[in-house]
Amino acid sequence: ATEQTREAYMAALFAEIGGRAKDYSDRTVTSIFIGGGTPSLLSGEQIGQLMDRIREQFAMAQDAEITMEVNPGTASAEKLRNFYTAGINRLSIGMQSAQAEELKNLGRIHDFEGFCQVYREAVEAGFTNINVDIMSGLPGQTLASYRDTLEKVLHLEPMPQHISAYSLIVEPGTPFAEQKLDLPDEDTEREMYARTAEILAEYGFFQYEISNYAKPGFACRHNIGYWKRTDYLGFGPSAASLFGNRRWTNTADRSLYLKACGALEKIREDEEILSQQDAMEEFMFLGLRMTQGISTAGFEEQFGKEIHAVYGGVLKKYEAMHLLQEHSGRLALTRDGISVSNVILADFLL
Fold it and tell me: Quick one: pLDDT at residue 38?
């Protein structure tokens, strides 16, 4: 993107923030996530302006968690220092793999050395809460190469506070879907997943969600908010929002977004009022992503219905298979259940 495009984008973003803020003046912001595309393409000054604008328009909690995604190919030491000065207090760096061939297959513009340099510079800039993204199930990846990636992350100095380990999903209609890929088989993928939890536990990480591991005190508060269906506002093209029982998404058309100059009715799409059934389904399939699971009392409090009266059949089925367990008023997937979670979670869609 040219500098002119970036400036136009920031102006439209500020207009949207300004147009939206007055409706939420009674709310306090507890977390912010500046995510992809690639926000680290913006300058430190632009991120500083964005943070200033949010602070002007919204009440911010003093200890708010403020995360920014960083692509190793787009961050310099100076930029990282400026991001830190702007108030960003958590970084999420997209490493994906430590193997040159795997990164090339993914079309990434960085290599492992480039990632290490950005990681070092982030630590030197003052960041003490850093997440590293890695991926399994990549083209050409083996159990040995995945383990090597994991070990290399764990031997960074200092060790990161959080690791997100995602499995590659090949979406229909993407360039990947049209290629004949040398992907690991299902058994290898399952083994990669099992080894991730085992190895990270040895290094003091606890798994708090299907794909997320943290040192104590460093679980990502913003993501937990999504899984617990806490209200959130999204700004920018394609950004989604959930407020009470209303959900909406911004247009993905960037030129339309820029032209609208913050006129909310022009950029808002797919607005829907969620039915109680929609909300219950989300409560289940989002909440069960967390290893602590969901509160049966919380379900009843929110929906006025006893959880077994609504989902008794599904719960019994997976408890009998030892994939789901109920303990001290909470329902959670077992270790075996987590490894086949997609199938189980889909069963809660009535």
Answer: 87
